[in-house]
Design brief:
The complex is a heterodimer of chains A (108) and B (120). In chain A, 0% of the residues lie in helices and 45% in strands. Chain A is globular. Chain A is built from no helices and nine strands. In chain B, the strands form two sheets. In chain B, strands 2, 4, 5, 6, 9, 10 and 11 form a seven-stranded mixed sheet that branches. Chain B has a four-stranded antiparallel sheet with strand order 1-3-8-7, with no helix packed on it. Chain B has 120 residues and is mainly β. Helix content of chain B is 0%, strand content 51%. In chain B, strand 5 and strand 6 form a beta hairpin. Chain B has no helices and eleven strands. The interface between A and B is medium-sized, with 27 and 24 residues.
């Protein structure tokens, strides 16, 4: 079955750029979606279809997808961005969402 | 405003049963495919089950197949997850989530979750 691989953790200083990757076999041909989950809260969609941002999400969040890696980029990272981030694709062979293992973003 | 509100979680003994509910509001529920996703303490997101808008297609993760039953009542804007033969490893926060309409499969709205604890 298809596997999405994320680094367990990423750290970045406030004001810098954080990049969270999601690896998968030829993931570039799939639509990748990203969720932010703050401690004790439900996941929130921050990017869908590789790079589309819901209207309520700050434009500091962006996404890209090519080859075997999709990337969520957070510019000018803030302490409030500290959260777990999950990538997701739709597994069309079994008709369900497939999640990466999640990445904990720490803003030092 | 779109809302998904889960209920029915609690403490249950191993081997016991529990029924979760999820009530939707703020959108045309009957048009949307829905999912249950859970998160064990300190772990990632695990998809459990999918149901299409008309209940004609239902899928389950292997981890719950044969033990959990996903259903919906469009007249009541509600989802249900009947969980039987519960195990310690079913301890988790359970979320209902909608698949964005006519999309590539992203989950646009999530409930706040309900905690299920399986313990003696």
């Amino acid at each position: 079955s298809y596997v999405l691989t994320q680094p367990p953790s990423v750290s970045e200083a406030p004001g810098q750029t954080a990049r969270i990757t999601c690896g998968g076999d030829n993931i570039g041909i799939k639509s990748v979606h990203w969720y932010q989950q703050r401690p004790g809260q439900a996941p929130v969609l921050v990017v869908h279809d590789d790079s589309v941002r819901p209207s309520e999400i700050p434009d500091r969040f962006s996404g890209s997808n090519s080859g075997n890696t999709a990337t969520l980029t957070i510019n000018r990272v803030e302490v409030g961005d500290e959260a777990d981030y999950y990538c997701q694709v739709w597994d069309s062979s079994t008709d369900h969402p497939l999640f990466g293992g999640g990445t904990k973003l720490t803003v030092l | 405003e779109v809302q998904l509100v889960e209920s029915g979680g609690g403490l249950v003994q191993p081997g016991g049963s529990l029924r979760l509910s999820c009530v939707a509001s703020g959108f045309t529920f009957s048009n949307y495919n829905m999912n249950w996703v859970r998160q064990a303490p300190g772990k990632g997101l695990e998809w459990l089950s999918y149901i299409n808008s008309r209940s004609s297609i239902i899928y389950y993760a292997e981890s719950v197949k044969g033990r959990f039953t996903f259903s919906r009542d469009n007249a009541k804007n509600s989802l249900y997850l009947q969980m039987n033969s519960l195990r310690a490893e079913d301890t988790a926060v359970y979320y209902c989530a909608s698949v964005a309409y006519d999309s590539s499969g992203y989950l646009d709205f999530w409930g706040q979750g309900t905690l299920v604890t399986v313990s003696s």
